[in-house]
Amino acid sequence: GPGVLYLSHPLPGDIAVLHMDGSEPWTIQSGGYMASSPGVNVGLRCQNLKQGMFSGEGFFVTKVSGRGSLFLCSFGSIHTLELRPGEEMTIDNGHLVAWPASMRYEVHKAAKGWW
Q1: Can you give the residue ranges of every domain in the chain?
Q2: pTM of this structure
Q3: How does strand 33-36 pair with strand 98-100?
Q4: Residue 41 and residue 22: Cα distance in Å, rounded?
Q5: Angle at Cα 95 formed by Cα 105 and Cα 85, nearest 5°?
Q6: pLDDT tens digit sequence for 12-46
Q7: How far apart are CA 109 and CA 66, in angstroms?
Q8: 93 near 42, Cβ under 8 Å?
Q9: For 107-113, what is the mean pLDDT?
Q10: Residue 107 to residue 92: CA distance in whole angstroms
Q11: Quick check: 34 and 111 in contact, CB under 8 A?
Q12: Highest-confidence range of 39-43, 93-97, 107-111, by mean pLDDT?
């Protein structure tokens, strides 16, 4: 029913609200999903072998779709980056919170080492 709801993240950081219009599913990193309204469907998506082994997120990430409000949380501040068609960005996977499910991404080893 009606009322006021207050949300809190257990670690120092931000909460961001994504208003989903149903046109695009989103992928969320481990620990980034906080809450959603009833019109948002929450499930899992299996990453490919390379993404699962090297992303630090494991083989499954959260996938959300539908219409409604999605609440994301993260340790530290959340900043929105909008990429233009063809634009690329290199991001440490530990700092990625959420991205459109249709966005193509690759996982690379950051430095050469013993492995």
Answers
A1: 13-77+90-98
A2: 0.77
A3: unpaired
A4: 10
A5: 35
A6: 889 999 999 999 999 998 889 999 999 999 998 77
A7: 34
A8: no
A9: 62
A10: 9
A11: no
A12: 39-43
